[in-house]
Design goal:
- The longest helix has 54 residues.
- By secondary structure, the chain is α+β, with helices and mostly antiparallel strands.
- The strands form 2 sheets. Strands 1, 2, 4, 5, 6, 7, 9 and 10 form an 8-stranded mixed beta sheet that branches.
Length: 342
């Protein structure tokens, strides 16, 4: 009847995530990344509470044969990845609303520098997990203001070696893989985390440039830098240095993924996604703006140096004048009369 028609209609909608490619089924799953804080304490989060929190969020599922309900997790140099059980949807309606593919494991990768990447995780579950992660974060970003990116993974079992190594593994809005495992997650999450981190750094750099522009306008009018502007200038310089260091040492934009380096079959996905998201170009764009900040800062520091030099020059002039006055008084005898009180 009508109810069956609606159910079938919903199933047709959800089949956007599962299409037929020749004789092989291709299942698409969503990938979403967010930049939620400047720093996340991975050690504290994972050893104290985060594993049990995630187990509660995804309650009632067993990951491995040991009978443990805790998610499997693996540490990287700058991240920790949690492998979670497949989503348990009760109907086609739930599947359509959650935007996840049942039967496929879910993954959450948390990066020390503030990015979180979700694989096959619904929006509701993402919000719950992020709320917990922010408890172990520094300078958390308010909900709705995080930098976000979305992508898809097309899982095609039985891919040949030629297909895996071909340029067709990256198709613009999705990456094609033979299976979703920790290695693929490591490679894809690295690029997804870097792209939102670069977006966030770019926004911050734009704000720093705006602050410098305001100082520049004031200097243009007065020819001097006010005391309150000195503190603002030093903060701008310090923050720009911090961003540059973070991009190189924490986000590691210029370093290659360890997984892609060690396993050639994952290198094509890594390099293809890096090119698709223009990671190197965006990094260069941010660096260009940081160099502009450094050039402006050098100009303002020169102005401060000149102001200080002028002040010291006037102090020296006053002291010399005072010394000359004392010498004249002494030569005229007026000094002796003043000191004797007569």
């Amino acid at each position: 009847g009508l109810s069956n028609y609606k159910e079938n209609d919903i199933i047709r909608v959800t089949k956007a995530y599962s299409t037929q490619h020749n004789t092989d089924t291709v299942t698409k799953i969503p990938v979403r990344s967010l930049f939620v804080a400047s720093t996340i304490d991975l050690f504290v989060a994972s050893t104290i509470d985060l594993v049990s929190v995630l187990s509660k969020v995804f309650a009632g599922s067993v990951i491995d044969g040991s009978g443990s309900s805790h998610p499997v997790h693996r540490f990287g140099k700058t991240s920790v990845t949690f492998q979670l059980p497949p989503s348990s949807v009760s109907s086609a309606t739930d599947m359509a609303l959650s935007s996840v593919s049942p039967g496929i494991d879910r993954y959450v990768t948390i990066f020390r520098y503030g990015s979180v990447v979700f694989f096959n995780v619904s929006w509701k579950e993402q919000r719950e997990i992020i709320a917990e992660i922010k408890k172990y974060s520094k300078d958390s970003i308010s909900i709705g203001f995080e930098q976000r990116e979305k992508y898809e993974i097309a899982i095609k079992p039985g891919m040949t070696e030629a297909e895996i190594e071909s340029d067709d593994v990256i198709k613009g809005d999705y990456a094609r893989v033979a299976q979703l495992n920790m290695n693929n997650v490591a490679v894809i999450s690295t690029i997804m985390s870097q792209t939102v981190a670069l977006d966030s750094y770019n926004v911050t750099v734009e704000e720093l440039l705006a602050a410098l522009e305001q100082i520049n306008e004031n200097v243009k009018k007065t020819g001097r830098i006010a005391n309150d502007e000195k503190e603002a200038l030093f903060k701008v310089v310090a923050q720009s240095n911090s961003i540059f260091n973070d991009m190189l040492t924490k986000v590691r934009v210029k370093e290659r993924s360890d997984t892609a380096w060690n396993y050639a079959q994952y290198d094509r996905v890594y390099e293809g996604m890096k090119e698709e998201f223009e990671v190197d170009e965006r990094f260069s764009h941010v660096v260009f703006k940081l160099n502009l900040i450094q050039q402006n800062a050098k100009f303002f520091l020169d102005v401060l140096h000149n102001q200080k030099s002028n002040t010291l020059e006037w102090i020296i002039i006053v002291l010399i004048g005072f010394e000359c006055g004392l010498m004249l008084m002494d030569m005229s005898g007026l000094g002796t009369m003043l000191l004797s009180g007569s």
